[in-house]
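Q: My labmate handed me this sequence with no annotations at all. I'd like to see what the chain might look like in three dimensions before we decide whether it's worth expressing. Could you predict it?
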Amino acid sequence: MEETEFNTLAGATLARIEQALDACTVGIDYELQAGGVLELEFGDGSKIIINRHAAAREIWVAARAGGFHFRHENGRWIGTRDGVELFTVLERLASEQAGERIALA
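A: Here is what I predict for the chain of 105 residues:
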């Protein structure tokens, strides 16, 4: 995948995450920073950082539970270790850190 295509896909995915957070009823503060870094902050001060890693052509997620890498395959971002889709993992991680169920899809 070319870098331009990666940046387009990753940017659209970060925008989709932002839209899901806008619709979320749980209070999560978030900010899209320069360079395609989306930072989510929870009530307890913990954070989830989502960023695009152009060199690897992956989206990386850092959370209290650890680090996760996702590669674009067949129209979805798939975890490189476990094959789980990005939004599924984000819902699980955000729910754990918020202490209540969070739906992002």
